[in-house]
Amino acid sequence: MKYDTILFDLDGTLLYTLEDLCDSINHTLTEYGQPTRSLEEVRQFVGNGLRKLVVRALPEHEDYERFDEFLDNFIEYYNTHNLIKTKPYDTVIETTEKLEKMGIKMAIVTNKGQTASESLLDDFFRPHIDIVIGDDGNHKRKPDPEPIEIALKKLGISDKSKVLYVGDSEVDATTAENAGLDYVLCTYGFRDMDVLEQFHPVAYVDTFKSLLEVIK
Length: 216
What we know:
It is a single chain. Helix 1 (18-31) packs across helix 4. Helices cover 42% and strands 16% of the residues. The chain has 10 helices and 8 strands. The longest helix has 14 residues, at 18-31. The protein is of the alpha/beta class. It folds into 2 domains: 5-16 and 87-214, HAD superfamily/HAD-like (Rossmann fold, 3-Layer(aba) Sandwich), CATH 3.40.50; 18-79, DNA polymerase, domain 1 (Orthogonal Bundle), CATH 1.10.150. The protein has helices spanning 18-31, 39-45, 50-57, 67-79, 92-101, 114-124, 146-155, 170-179, 193-196, 211-214, and strands spanning 5-8, 15-16, 87-88, 105-113, 132-135, 163-167, 182-186, 203-205. The relative contact order is 0.18. It has a 6-stranded parallel beta sheet. A two-stranded antiparallel ribbon has the order 2-3.
């Protein structure tokens, strides 16, 4: 096989999380008397972690005087409301199971907070995927390659030549390029094709199961 290790983004790649993120940010915006955001706006806001989502959603951004309090309350609410509408994209579960049976090593690398990421890993992907590197405040976030390096170290991988990164956004493409990895971009995720076509992945995939052809 061309690749024996795959690193996945989470939101927009493995899981459709947009509505729970939108509902949670709007719940918190309403609680603080701020204008709510549309699903389309939130789709454009995600990709750089929960803090950046809050920065983009608040009209005053980081200048909002209760920003830190707002952020903490949003994260607390989202961590307990992230499984209401969230679901795997079509063919994700059966494909990750098949990849495991093929001996492919896998991990998730995301800018989502570590607590929420671990919860979603437990609910959807264990035992097929056991490692998730989320934002725990102790390392840089994507597009910096540091979380990629942490994941590869946990997997015991030093040779990047057979590692594939799979994501759905410009953040993912830039992360993979910064880490020196081949990458695939999923066209069904949170970004439109006019954004994705600016990059040069080894493949674009319209369905998750198409990865099985890419790795051969």
